[in-house]
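Help wanted!
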Amino acid sequence: MVDTKVARRYASALFATAQKNDVVKSVEDDLSAIANLFQNDAKFKDFILSPRVGREEKIKIAEKLFSDRVTALTMQALRLMLVKRRESEVVSVHDEFVALRREFGSIAYVMVSSSEALEPDQKSAIIAKLEQKTGKKVEADFQIDPHLIGGVKVQIGDYVLDGTVRGSLRRLGEKLRRDVLKQN
Amino acid sequence: MSEVQKPSGAKTLAGIVIGAALMFVGMYLSVKQNDFSFLHWQHSLAEQGIPIDLGKTISIFGVFLILFPVIRLFFIQPLSDAITERTNALESTFGEAEDLRHEMTKMKSDYEQRLAATEAEARAQIQAQIKEAQDLRQSLMSEATAKADEMVKKAQQEIEAEKQKVLGQLRTEVVTLTLSATEKILGENMDSDKNRKLIAEFIDKVEVPG
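Answered by r_m:
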């Protein structure tokens, strides 16, 4: 079971240490790689989360897999999580680490959705416009959703800026339904 | 009826004693009439054809004086008592009859009064019941009318609400179908150029909330 508070605590300690050693980017990359492996490799995930596998064996395999691929700090943190039986928090620690890094660097994270893949110039234009409007550096993830028909949708935190055809149709439908209800 | 006066015991006894004395004196004078000169006139009258014996007459008076109390004691007094008793009984009976008559008259009067009061009360109750029944009838009719009106009104409201609901559903359905059709047409007509144009418009107009 994932405990957000625990993940936040681990992430905070790791971020502080990484910042102090100026290896924030490297640690984040390491955590991303480990989290990707955790999410995409079912065998690795089952092995790490298995209660039948001993701690020493997990640490041994993890060191064998990651010691020459990740920074010493990341390896130390991973080892600590395995020792404390917090291996299930790895993905959450990565997410919290990224959130801390963005928070510390005053970076706004946006999710951009469009019906077809955006051209690089479109991506750059969107990011530039958002940076201009938010006054922050923007990190964006781009995803494709054919259901949007056309246009683009941007999610910043709790806000959604919907410029898609589907969004326009949804708003039009809501307005028409409200008018229908008013007529009743 | 007046009651026969009873003689006192002393008077009766005196009468008997006097009667006995007169009887004996008379008998003695009758027997010894020749010995007394003042009785010679009896002989003169006897010779003239009028035989009067003073002694016997006196004896007879004496006998009467003795007999009167006896007769009065054994005949007149019981008869008088019986008459008195009968008279008293009759008076008592008449009195009782009179009392009964008065009582009956009073009862009759009471009965008539009670009957009249009962009739008046019955009439009043009947009138009250009739009025109550009329009021109840009026009330029930008003209530029934109000209920019927309310039911009609409610039914009309329900019909209107149902009509509006169906109309609303129909309009909503029309909106949904129109939007679906629009979405389909837009999807079919969307191309990269139009998409780029849309994205360019979004970038141009986008505003980020503070």
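OP: Thanks! One thing I noticed: Chain B touches chain A at residues 164-165, 167-168, 171-172, 175-176, 179, 182-183, 186-187, 190, 192, 194-196, 198-203, 205-209 (CB under 8 Å).
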